[in-house]
Amino acid sequence: MIRRATRSGATAAATLCLLAAAAAGNAGASPLQPGAIDYVALGDSAAAGPLLPDQDMSAPGCLRSRDNYPAVVAAALGATLTDVTCSSARTAHITDTRQGTFAGAVPPQLDALSPDTDLVTVTIGANDFNLFSTALSCTNPLPQPTGTSCRDKFTAGGRNQQRDLIRDWAPAWGAMLDKVRERAPHAEIAVVGYGTYLRPGGCPAQQPIWPQDADYLQSVMADANEAMAAEAARRDVRFIDIRQATSGHDICAGPTQAHYAGLVPAEPAVPLHPTVLGMQAIGAHVAGELR
User: Fold this and answer.
1) Among 170, 151, 132, CA closest to 219
2) Where does the SGNH hydrolase-type esterase domain start and stop, copy by copy (predicted)?
3) Are 36 and 153 in contact (CB under 8 A)?
């Protein structure tokens, strides 16, 4: 349920309508009129949708699709969307650092927020702990035991390097939420986590990742989700877990089922990023949780 300190009788009435619909178990479209919710989407490529059809040319360097999950959420809720998600963004690019892109620098995403903002979604963090480069280092087309397991490399000496990176990153990520709250004091803030990219054991016959390395990569996402959920809970911020919603639709699934592109994508999408189908599913799940 989107909650907000009301600014007018119209907003109060809209909120009451939404509460009534939820109480009645209404699973249909939001009763709010278009424009009743001022929605700002913050985040990285998992939210932006690089290379997905209908790229937003207002900020070409961000590789942002007009059909990403924030667009799906906005349509479902009848919200007015300001989407400043940007591929390759790190947590600092939300708060106080201009992000350089091939088409020029873009302002900190926080600049899109105001006291009039009603809803904020946030998907950020994977670039802070180098998820994409870690995943690429786990690619191994050779059969075992030829080559090196990335799980063994990242856990050598009994130390889980990725888990340590996430642990060290989490406080700064939590501080980012504090700044979001300062800029949008009346908004409902929803953190949208990362999904199920690989099923248990992976699918080495289809994707060149050994089973133990597939499990390790998904465990990194689990660690990140748990860290984000904990920081969000400390601030009474909603965390929306999309792992179940994307389970069974990982990079091992067929092209008509996959919510994430494989290392060799079968459609326009960046490897290990949401497909068009994935954005639709994630957006529908997020909208359902917000209702």
Assistant:
1) 151
2) 41-281
3) no
Q: Is 45 a catalytic residue?
A: yes
Token reading at 122: 């946030």
The answer to whether the beta carbons of residues 88 and 8 sit under 8 Å apart is no
Query: Distance between CA 1 and CA 51 in Å, rounded?
Result: 32
Residue 273 among the catalytic residues: yes
Q: How confident is the model at residue 28 (pLDDT cuts 50, 70, 90)?
A: very low
Mean pLDDT along residues 103-129 = 96
> Rounded to whole angstroms, how far apart are CA atoms 12 and 3?
10
Q: What are phi and psi for residue 263, nearest 5 degrees? A: -65, -25
**Selected catalytic residue, list 45, 65, 87, 88:** 45
Q: Would the CA dihedral through 105, 106, 108, 111 be positive or negative? A: positive
Kindly indicate the confidence band of residue 27, based on its pLDDT and cuts at 50, 70 and 90.
very low
The one-letter amino acid at 222 = A
How far is it, in rounded angstroms, from Cα 274 to Cα 21? 30
Residue 141 burial (C-beta neighbours within 10 Å; 0-12, 13-18, 19+): exposed
Per-residue DSSP letter, 123: E
DSSP 191-226: EE-----S-TT--TTTSSB-HHHHHHHHHHHHHHHH
pTM of structure = 0.87
Region 118-129 average pLDDT = 96
Which listed residue (93, 259, 273, 285) is catalytic?
Answer: 273
